[in-house]
Amino acid sequence: MKIIARDIPPRSVWALEQAGVHPLLARLYASRGVLGKDELDDGLARLLPPATLRGTQEAAVLLADAIRDNKRLCIVADYDCDGATACAVAVRGLRLLGAAHVSYLVPDRVVDGYGLTPPIAERVAATGADMLITVDNGIASVEGVAAAKARGLAVLVTDHHLPGPELPAADVLVNPNQPGCAFESKSIAGVGVMFYVLLALRAELRARGVFDAAPGAGPAQGAAAAPAVPQPKLDVLLPLVALGTVADVVKLDANNRRLVAQGLRRIRGGQMPVGLAALFKAAGRASAVATAFDFGFALGPRINAAGRLADMTLGIECLLTDDAGRADALARTLDGINRQRRDIEGDMRDQALRLAESLIDEGALPPAAISVFDAGFHEGVVGIVASRLKDRFHRPTFVFAASAADGKSHELKGSGRSIPGFHLRDALDLVAKRHPGVLLRFGGHAMAAGCTIAREHFGTFEQGMAQVAREWLAAAALTRQIETDGPLAREYMRVDLVDTLHREVWGQGFAPPTFSEEVEVISQRLVGEKHLALKLRHQGQPVDGMWFSHTEPLPSRVKLAFRLDADEWQGVRRVRFLVEGAEVD
Length: 585
Fold this sequence. Notes:
It is built from 17 helices and 19 strands. By secondary structure, it is of the alpha/beta class.
């Protein structure tokens, strides 16, 4: 492992400090590419204009006409947290804007697979819907969209995934990654795309005289033809947008950070759906001091667990209900499913680790890419386990499980996670071209992707992916690196500054502050047989430290990469270090 410090542009630091930004935050922001204080303005007025997202204007007209004509709208969601929040935003938002008939359908991970398939389109048509709206899926659903159109459904696709070689023949496509789209935030999550469609729809309804510009509660459902009323406040949806954005681990560019910051602001003020409040309670987290970390590691996993092991309808209903009692019951159910997921994950992780280690000759480096399969693996958890192996070995990793769908036991469902410099979906595309027929289906992003193969082709896939990794990844890319913000000055070892850092929006592509320097290890002991508790001396001052999921002892002096946290003991809060890695010769 190599610990390296980020470059800190002095002119950017100076400009931020001159604009009144705290010196520590100025240093952190500058090293993440922020050039001026205006980029830190998270006001709604600074969001990218909806008109720049290709398809939003056409989608607004399509939806406004449907609301006017009292059409039946059906949302086809996805079974992860982004899909669940996007579905909840679509249902809540369309109802706020006057749609009288809005329903949803979420595919089953095992039975239906991913996206809008022809059978899903048939099920939507059978409900009597007039329009099908996808959220967080659909850009690759050429056959599913064709099936929906053949049944007479209007189709609106809202998605953020990378398109394939052929676009579906939907009435309207809204996706920042479709050809010809100039929207600057290519990393916006599926829930963000749907939020933008609603913003455009509200503007269209305002132009038609349905609303005036004064904010209000909105019309009663089905009241689109009534005289103009104050327009509904769509910012009530921002807590859901923030949750889905962070949980989907998309890059937190400036626009995504604004969406997350706005959602957090409302949650901290107690303005959120009762389901979110219930999830905070079930996770043991305080919504009054909510952080992006809570989205990614507390709420998101509980919603995702429903899609992995049960039915994502549970998660969506938790986000849709306005009944506090029902929300609490659903949140407790999701918490229980998440505990079950942890148990399954733990067993799978141990077995996957053994399989991965068997691929490594004694004294040798791991292969350039790792692929493992076991007949006992659960397909709903393969993505999490792939992430754990990727972190352990610093290699692109795929974990496969046998399909549990009827008649599909000969197929393997795989989920992959990648490392910087290796575009996973492009790698799958190359494997598919080099080995025709091996990949039955695939899709995804640069850092996460999924695929389906025949069981008999696992060996071919494993070798093919490793070959692509050997060609694309230099030795330096295969060496784990931790980027840090360098040494931490002693005057910043304060609990109030820890709280300040926690209130900011950090995440994928805008990494949380991590510092590094050599410290003295005074003592160390195992906690719970899997965590290392440390007493350190940092710049002559004692400080506690914790290295979670690490058991190997450290030398008496070592260079550590660490994040700041606040620990409380007998009513006194103190700074402690959460260790991320160590550079040991």
